[in-house]
Amino acid sequence: MSSVENQAHSHPMSLTNLEDCFGRLYRVFGAYEGEQLIGFAIVQQIVDELTLLDICIKPQSQGKGLGLHLLNHIISDSKQHEAVIVMLEVRQSNQAAIGLYQKLGFVESGRRTGYYPAESGREDAILMDYRL
């Protein structure tokens, strides 16, 4: 997972942070090509609120619908676990992800100004929600 994370994100989560996502409040979903992990998503559910903490696909495997597949699986799984909302945050510069989230019905619910480190300074986090 760490390898995929480092390839897919400009500011990846640390190995320690990834390891911490295997507790009882978390669920981790993988996307595979044969036996090779090429993408994953991590969610955390507290009571009926689910937060998408991370989703990434190896760059060479992007654009093939794997992100959409993972998100649809997360939404289906969320319903089975009686969540009422799926929440996430995304870098304002990540227009491909924002477009995918909007396509599925996520709506912007807020912003965190200067939340993420960027190549030159900081950039906003866009908060998005999907009501189940």
In short:
The chain has 132 residues and is α+β, with helices and mostly antiparallel strands.
Separation of the first and last Cα atoms: 28 Å
What's the total number of strands? 6
Which band does the percent of strand residues land in?
35-45%
Q: Low-confidence runs (pLDDT<50, min 5 residues)?
A: none
Largest sheet: 6 strands, mixed
Rg estimate, integer Å: 14 Å
CATH class: Alpha Beta
Domain N-acetyltransferase: 1-132
Binding site for acetyl-CoA: 94
Protein name: [Ribosomal protein bS18]-alanine N-acetyltransferase
Subcellular location: Cytoplasm
Describe the structure.
It is a single chain. The protein has a 6-stranded mixed beta sheet with strand order 1-2-3-4-6-5. It has a single domain, classed as Gcn5-related N-acetyltransferase (GNAT) (Aminopeptidase), CATH 3.40.630.30. With 132 residues, it is an alpha+beta fold. A hairpin with a 2-residue loop joins strand 1 and strand 2. The chain is built from 4 helices and 6 strands. The model has no long low-confidence stretch (mean pLDDT 96).
Feature tags:
single chain; cytoplasm; Aminopeptidase; alpha+beta; RimI; globular; 132 residues; six-stranded mixed beta sheet; 4 helices
Topology record:
Elements: H1 2-8, H2 15-19, E1 26-33, E2 36-46, E3 49-57, H3 66-80, E4 85-91, H4 95-104, E5 107-118, E6 121-131
Parallel strand pairs: 3-4
Antiparallel strand pairs: 1-2, 2-3, 4-6, 5-6
